[in-house]
Design a protein that fits this description.
Elements (H helix, E strand, L loop, with lengths): L13 E2 L4 E3 L17 H10 L5 H4 L7 H15 L2 E3 L5 E8 L3 E11 L8 E2 L6 H14 L1 E2 L3 E5 L5 H12 L4 E5 L2 E8 L2 H11 L4 E5 L1 H16 L9 E8 L6 E3 L1 E5 L4 H8 L4 E5 L2 H10 L4 E5 L4 E5 L3 H7 L6 H4 L2 H13 L10 E4 L2 H11 L2 E4 L5 H9 L10 E3 L9 E2 L4
Helix pairs in contact: 3-4, 4-7, 5-6
């Protein structure tokens, strides 16, 4: 049956499920960061730390048998009791905390899938075919969601958040472990009345995809395939998700910096002077402080030698560089100005993976990489959550590599299999 109608949820819905969890003594040793943040070296370190580390499932290798290997590994671990489903379906409370500077609580469950046009679950980044094909092959082979996506909603500390906080304050957790200085705790809510309170509070709200755009697109692709095959309703109509009230627990939105190895710093600065005010700083710390205080679009160019702050761009040049049909809010984003003006118009470069290297969060690491390659680091201020929410609410997408929300859920604390859903 081709082009069958997909179910449309009547609001934001988080369904209970039988969580699948590791039954090992040291939970911390079998977890990992999300799959797209694990380097090859880190993957090897995680596998050396424990033979049952979840990275064996989420990143099963490079050969053409890797998806079957992940399936076989998952089935073996379930059969041997390394992984075990919880006896009752639950919505789970998940908390991350560290020394008073990190506290985030949310709910993990099966989120009902919705098309972007429904305005229930809002993407804010574009997705690309390669990562979707990879995650789809893995999901189809394992018949599982191996790690939750990360959703934010403006709950205004409603009933779901109050219950989340009550559970964390008064009940014994299923899981309590520390990983890289961050404490992770997990509770199960199985009471029907409490789950109904959560559902009633969430239904009228909408959520922003903070992390996991490709996995959410994969959820929906798998859903489409099953409905086109005539399979009807099933576990493919839902996806594993962490849902956090951003008003109660504001996320930390970090910048993603760029390094351009083939662009010498002196050339980058010289060519920028035709469109920007350029301010030299001898020390990177001074340049970073000036960038943080800059009013309006600004970038810090750095590498070997002094760094240079770009401010006050020529508004006419920027206006001509922006694509038609974009909102004024989108055109004012620093990542839009970088992608549409600074890179292509000022420097004549394409904003792609071959030309531009990405460094998450760490400005000093970006500067060191630029100095090592004889290139230029472009240091950015982070976008604000309000900017991203507003862009997504209007149906637009921010430019690639614009946002990095944290803290992200740790992979391996809870999984979902279709067989136990």
């Amino acid at each position: 049956m081709a082009n069958s109608e997909l179910p449309v949820p009547d609001g934001l819905s988080l369904r209970p499920f039988h969580g699948v969890r590791f039954a090992v003594d040291d939970i911390s040793s079998v977890t990992s960061p999300p799959y797209d943040l694990v380097s090859d070296d880190e993957a090897r370190e995680l596998l050396d730390a424990h033979p049952n580390n979840v990275v064996r499932l989420i990143l099963p290798g490079a050969d053409h048998h890797r998806y079957a290997q992940a399936r076989d590994t998952l089935q073996t671990w379930l059969a041997e009791g390394v992984l075990a489903p919880d006896p009752e379906p639950a919505v789970y409370v998940y908390e991350q905390s560290r020394n008073g500077d990190i506290l985030q609580r949310g709910l993990i469950g099966d989120v009902a899938l919705a098309a972007p046009a429904s305005r229930i679950i809002l993407p804010h980044e574009e997705v690309y075919p390669g990562p979707i094909a990879d995650r789809l092959a893995l999901m189809k082979s394992t018949q599982a969601n191996l790690e939750p996506i990360f959703l934010l909603y403006e709950g205004v500390e409603g009933a779901a958040t109050r219950l989340t906080d009550e559970v964390a304050a008064t009940r014994m957790p299923l899981l309590d472990t520390e990983i890289a200085g961050v404490r992770h705790r997990l509770w199960a809510i199985t009471d029907t009345a409490e789950i109904e309170r959560i559902d009633a509070d969430l239904r009228p709200r909408r959520a922003l995809i903070a992390d996991g755009h490709h996995r959410y697109a994969t959820y929906r692709t798998l859903q489409r395939e099953h409905h086109d095959a005539g399979d009807g309703p099933g576990p493919w109509d839902y996806g594993l998700a962490l849902l956090v009230d951003s008003t109660a627990y504001p996320p930390d939105l970090k910048p993603i910096h760029r390094v351009i190895p083939r662009l010498p710093l002196g050339e980058a600065v010289a060519r920028a002077k035709g469109a920007w005010q350029v301010h030299e700083h001898a020390e990177i710390a001074d340049g970073l402080a000036a960038l943080a205080e800059a009013d309006g679009p600004a970038f810090l160019l750095a590498g070997a030698g002094p760094c240079h702050l770009l401010t006050d761009p020529d508004p006419l040049q920027i206006r001509h560089a922006m694509p038609e049909g974009r909102s004024a809010r989108w055109c004012a984003l620093n990542t839009a100005i970088l992608a549409e003006f600074l890179l292509p118009k000022v420097w004549g470069l394409r904003d792609d993976e071959e030309t531009v290297r990405i460094v998450h969060h760490d400005a000093n690491a970006a500067v060191q990489l630029a100095a090592h390659t004889g290139g230029t680091a472009v240091i950015l201020n982070p976008l604000t959550v309000e900017e991203v929410m507003a862009i997504a609410a209007e149906g637009e997408r921010v430019p690639r590599k614009s946002t990095s929300f944290s803290p992200k859920p740790r992979t391996g604390l809870i999984l979902r299999t279709f067989a136990t859903d």
